[in-house]
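Section 3.1: Structural characterization of target chains.
Under the original work plan, the team committed to producing a structural model for every single-chain target entering the pipeline before any wet-lab resources were allocated. The record below documents one such target. The sequence was received from the expression subgroup and is listed exactly as submitted; it comprises 667 residues.
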Amino acid sequence: MTRLRPGHARARRATTFALVLTFAIATLTAACGGDDGGDGPVFGDDHPRIYLPRNRDRLAAMVAANAPSWTRFKSIVDIQLDGGNIYAFEAWYAALVGQLTGDPRYCAAAVAQVDDMVRDDEALVANGERPGVAFDSYLEVGPKIGDLALTYDWCFETVSDDQRRRWIAFANQAVWNVWHPEQATWGGEVMEWSGWSIDNPSNNNYYSFLRATMTMGLATRAETPEGDEWIRIFRDEKMGAQLVPTFTRDLVGGGSREGTGYGVAMMRLYELYDIWHGSTGEQLADDSSHARDSMLHMMHSTVPTLDRVAPIGDHARDSTAAWFDYHRHYLQILTHLFKDDPIAPYATQLLDSSSVPEMDQPFMYVHDFLYDTGITPAPLADLGRVYFAPGNGQLYARSSWTTDATWLNFIAGPYTESHAHQDQGSFMIYKGGWLGYDGVVDSTSGLTQEPEAHSLLRFVSGGTTVAMHEPTTSTMAAVARGPGWVHAAGDLTPAFRGDAAVTRWQRELVYIEPDCVVVYDRADSAAGAQQIWQLVSPASFTINGAQASVLASGHRLTTQRVLPASATASATALSGDFSGGFRYEEASAGGSVRHLHVLWLDGAVGSATAAAAGGRDGVAITLADGRTATVRFDTGQVGGTLSISGGSGGNVDATLAPGVASLPERP
């Protein structure tokens, strides 16, 4: 075994004493099983080196017990070997079965599959073309080179000398090209590429680059000079100097700035944490709070029916944001990485209760086998119901963890990634199905980013919507939780990047559980810039004076305008890239305008009337359950008051103030 200290390349000792000492420490660490103690990774010199050193016994026990997850996975490998055509089948699936059963035909099939891939790309290079591994800005370099590296390592004895030479040369060139885009070559010819996101750990492409680099480093360390270099680049340069500082600074609370569509690609990063730990004993997932926080983020971004996530950002694969194997894998691997964490049992319960209780797609069966943790579930009712991720500005709240609960999302934070949308200040409401949503759900491409598709305040200047710009950072100025209520406020002004048409937009929400939301907007715009308050829904709107309602999924959402006193209301179908969806609009002239609305579900509000006092705009609400609530907002700055009386929940007399409170993970 060889030990690598944090921040250093492979240790080289100048004296016999130092060499002996290094070997003794590594041997003792491995023997005692204490290689999670923060002293750096411990590498094995014999193949297999990747993952199996610390996972073989666990997986072998499942094989011996004929665990259902094993038999299901092995069945699709056998189908493939018997002439089937399993979609997205990777060679390492067969290599893994070969390692765990000792049957040589599995490694023979894996080696043949990888060799075919290499030969196909070699042929393209020989013709002066870019190989498949370079397709789409090297997006597939991780899966392709990772497949090669795992097969090389797990089937080492059956890979011929010629194959080793060719595979390593091909893979090393691919990895080198990734990190040197302007000098990238194939077949001796310069084939530069854009270098898209090679230094951006918040982008999904980055995780593909890391996979290729890490796996080739682990597979060929000490065999080639490049192997040691790939280890250095992966661990020290990319993980240590880029990803960990970026996540620590920018992604507190977990999740992704790319949204919940492209953000699910972080499952590939979590795989790398697990593979590295299984190979070296070092737990990189602990180097920032992001991975652990993302377990909570995924759970709270999942709607109460546990069959879809909040549709935030681009959703190119599936615009509806329905739960898929990828979402299962995302949460499943996190429960494996943090199996001793008190949150893991809740995540396990959500996985078991979701619309994807086991992998649906055969090419994903392997992950049910690898991450069959056996964690005892805990009831979701014991989990907190409000969650805020400062790193991406996403706030989630729900009335309960039952499937018929009301769920709310509000966004105010960074807009820094190309797959994010112009959705700062928007909110979504779900009960049994979507009532207020992101129109991307009904888009044909999943890539429509414009403000018209979101429930927000839109500004129009010269007949054109004033755009939000990236990179900009809006601010969640307030988050507070009280008995039966949630308060949030966002300053969205920065999203317009100094456009003279918008000098201020602040939005405050007060959620009165379980079914009432009060929305207040402070908007200052150029005199000629029209302000349009809008609500987007999958169903058409019925307008009745200052009220509009929509019926969807068996529930009715009603919105009532309290301020401004007059506005031009209308409703229209989403157009262009949309196959469905509707937008309710209230148009007001520009200038300094205050918008106050009350939204409720299924008759939860009996009346809502203006109740300004003390220089504050306000509304008095009679709730159907016998309570009354009065909410008032300062007209010039974030803040106000909330009072609730009557009913069985006790009285509330709260000050709404700036500041982000700490939210308990469990009540």
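Residues 251-377 form one domain.
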